[in-house]
Write a structure and sequence with these properties.
Blueprint (H helix, E strand, L loop, with lengths): L7 E6 L14 H16 L3 E6 L7 H6 L4 H25 L4 E5 L8 E2 L2 H9 L3 E5 L9 H11 L4 E6 L20 E2 L1 H6 L7 H9 L4 E5 L5 H6 L5 E4 L4
Parallel strand pairs: 1-2, 1-6, 2-5, 3-4, 3-5, 6-8, 7-9
Antiparallel strand pairs: 8-9
Helix pairs in contact: 1-3, 5-7
The chain binds uridine-5'-diphosphate.
């Protein structure tokens, strides 16, 4: 595979990767390891935007399934993403990476609001910008938040670091014959309901021609490998 020539990326990490080997919450040791990978990416000359999920703490759907009002539960989920963003900010700054957190739900005492022009300036100055609280509205997910920020910030790719090493044609946990795609078209993902990101996030990337690179962030050094076109990954793009 030829080496991709990204200048600016958006890295989306699912909340669950911050748990490390725990069942819930944040494992600071594991967050520190993730921060090292982000630092490496930045030190290679890339501009890095980050979006972190909240599933390690709270998911709105889970609250709704137990009888909570969905919108109320989703706001709790958004707050969870802010906690994760602050944890990642802490880990990055401890290793000398300058960061700013911008939240779609305004929280002046702890972070900035989302202001695109200000985010641009942060990136120019070599800071990592961590976008929290998704799109700032219930009934969405941080995948949609990631797609939105990737489009808004004109990122060259959306890298989705998760617990699986790519996109499969069936669930690899239940189907031993499941095959991983190296590359797949947006429309195949949508038509076959392949598990990459929510349909709205995939459609937003398709409409703005932003490739989605799905890879496992659980393996050390994988982000660096994926960024040079090596390593196990699936790329979702036009005409694949
Ligand atoms: N959420 C939301 N709107 C958004 C982003 C997130 O309501 O724009 C809520 C939603 O309840 C979601 C939770 O925040 O379940 C955590 O985000 P997500 O499930 O995307 O986290 P991940 O699965 O990536 O860890």
């Amino acid at each position: 595979m030829s080496s991709p020539s990204y200048k600016r990326i958006l890295l989306k990490l699912s909340g669950e990767v911050l748990m490390g080997n725990q069942q819930y919450g944040i494992d600071p040791e594991f967050v520190a390891e993730l921060a090292l990978e982000v630092k490496q990416a930045k030190d290679s000359g890339l501009e890095v935007c980050l979006v972190i999920g909240g599933g390690n703490i709270f998911r709105g759907m889970a609250g709704a399934a137990k009888g909570m009002d969905r919108a109320q539960a989703d706001y709790m989920g958004m707050l969870a993403t802010v906690m994760n963003a602050l944890a990642m900010q802490n880990a990055l700054e401890q290793i000398g990476v300058q960061t700013r957190v911008q939240s779609a739900v305004q929280m002046d005492a702890v972070c900035e609001p989302v202001i695109r022009r200000r985010a641009e300036r942060h990136l120019e100055k070599g800071r990592v910008v961590i976008f929290a609280a998704g799109v700032g509205a219930p009934y969405f997910t941080t995948d949609s938040g990631a797609a939105l920020r990737a489009a808004e910030m004109r990122c060259d790719a959306l890298l989705k670091g998760t617990s699986v090493d790519g996109v499969y044609d069936a669930d690899p946990k239940t189907d031993p014959n499941a095959k991983r795609y190296d590359a797949v078209d947006y429309d195949t993902v949508l038509a076959n309901n392949l598990k990459v990101m929510d349909a709205s996030a995939v459609a937003l990337c398709r409409d703005n021609n932003i490739p989605i690179v799905v890879f496992s962030i659980r393996e050390k050094g994988n982000l660096a490998r994926v960024l040079v076109g090596e390593g196990v990954q699936t790329i979702v793009q036009k005409g694949a």
